[in-house]
Amino acid sequence: MNPKRIKKILQKYYEMDHHYEDGKVLGSMYTYLPEIVLDTFIKFYQANLGNEGMYPGTKRMEEKVVKFLLTLSSAKASLFEKKFFGHIVSGGTEANITALWIARNMGFNRILTTKDAHFSIRKAANILNIPLEEISMNTGKMDIGDLESKIRDGDIVVATAGTTPLGIVDPIKEIGEICNLYDCFMHVDAAFGGFVIPFLRELGYMDVKFGFDVPEVMSLTIDPHKMGMAPYPAGAILMRGNLFKYIEVDAPYLVRGKNASLLGTRQSGSVAAAYASILYFGWNGYREIVKRCMENMHYAIRRIQEEGFEIFIKPELNILNIKLKNPSRTKREFLKRGWSVSINPSYGTMRIVFMPHVTTRVIENFLKVLKNIEKS
Ligand SMILES: Cc1ncc(COP(=O)(O)O)c(C=O)c1O
Which residues contact 12 (CB under 8 A, 6 or more apart)? Predict the structure, then answer.
């Protein structure tokens, strides 16, 4: 077939998908990206850091991205080379599995986490055959009392900095203090919050620790392909110490002869693109994005309440939940009207992630549809 005809065929499928530009996507943690970032993805799309010896340039960019992520995670810059290590991986799921795989190989043998921890933690427990015990929650946060009563030597405690359903930050510092009393491995899943909390602190919205400035934190997930404005697949796993040796295997056919990641071949155009995004936005640019998302969320809170709807739990990050009588029905009705929305059935809410494409105009349109559905 000639390219023109192929394009025509593909266009049909493209039009079936949702696009951020259409103003009807409310539940996604991804958004549209600047052209330079996408151009970089295409330029480096052949790079494969699974065979890093062949791509020393892309490897250097990975190191630069990891450095930026370590800064976001409050690792001490002077210790980057010796004390902290990181890999760009395919996403939060792979990052969480990698952390728990390492912890298991170090001899830790039970996971403690909350119901709102991302489902990738349960996947990891299942794949790695590690038992998982739930710690109860208090207004969306891990309950310190329950943790204290259940924790024992050998546990892996998984805290979340920005939970998927509610965007709530577990009390990382207090959890660390408890872990300190036991021989535990503490992992923080900041897949979403890692690119948000540092800027919320600068903007005066919150003042919490979530990263390596909590001495017990051994590993941390932080995803460029969420609020880091990088294209998929770009998650990251950061480690205190070179713990990757616990999962390293011989790979004689590769240039380096060793491999220490879950995936073999890995798409690395996204690593270059994550670096382009860091160059494009810089620290201040990311802070501006977070500021705009928070302002749009606060506009939405005011308007949602004016229209007589109730906000569920005070949001900490740019994730908002609206209490609804029948969220599953509301979701169905939104889907019928061409929207992509997300609900939390266990909380009886609809969830909006305030990514840059969720503007005040999008919120006004959403409210019109919501009122219509709830009245019918
Ligand atoms: C807190 C958290 N951790 C992990 C993940 C999984 O990330 P991914 O979908 O990139 O594998 C998500 C995804 O939403 C998340 O919100």
Answer: none
CB neighbour list of residue 281: distance below 8 Å, 6 or more residues apart:
229, 288, 289
pLDDT value, residue 376: 85
CA 226 to ligand 1 centroid distance, Å = 9
Q: What is the pLDDT of residue 77?
A: 86
What values do phi and psi take at 25, rounded to 5?
A: -110, 115
369 burial level (CB within 10 Å; 0-12, 13-18, 19+): middle
* Residue 113 three-state SS: strand
The answer, yes or no, to whether any atom of ligand 1 lies below 6 A from the CB of 164, is: yes
Contacts of 168 (CB under 8 A, 6+ apart): 116, 139, 140, 141, 160, 162, 313, 316, 317
Instruction: Please name the residue that has the structure tokens 């509301």.
Output: 330
164, 188, 222: residue to mutate for ligand 1 pocket, most atoms within 8 A of CB: 164
Please give the CATH number for the structural domain made up of 35-279. 3.40.640.10
Q: Which amino acid is at 69?
A: L
What pLDDT is stored for residue 219 in this prediction?
A: 98
First to last CA, the chain: 49
CA atoms within 13 A of residue 226's CA, in its CB half-sphere: 27
Provide the b/e sequence for 95-114 (b: ≥16 CB within 10 Å).
bbbbbbbbbbeeebebbbbb
For residue range 27-53, what is the model confidence (pLDDT) as tens digits?
999 999 999 999 999 999 999 999 999
The rounded distance, in Å, linking the Cα atoms of 275 and 271 is: 6
Q: Which ranges of 90-211 does DSSP label H, i.e. alpha helix?
A: 92-105, 119-128, 144-150, 172-179, 197-202
| pLDDT at position 82 | 85
- Ligand 1 centre to CA of 191 (Å) is 6
Domain boundaries, the chain: 3-33+283-375, 35-279
118 CA from centroid of ligand 1 (Å): 6
Check if CATH label 3.90.1150.10 holds for domain 3-33+283-375. yes
Collect the ranges in the chain with pLDDT lower than 50.
none
pLDDT for 37 equals: 98
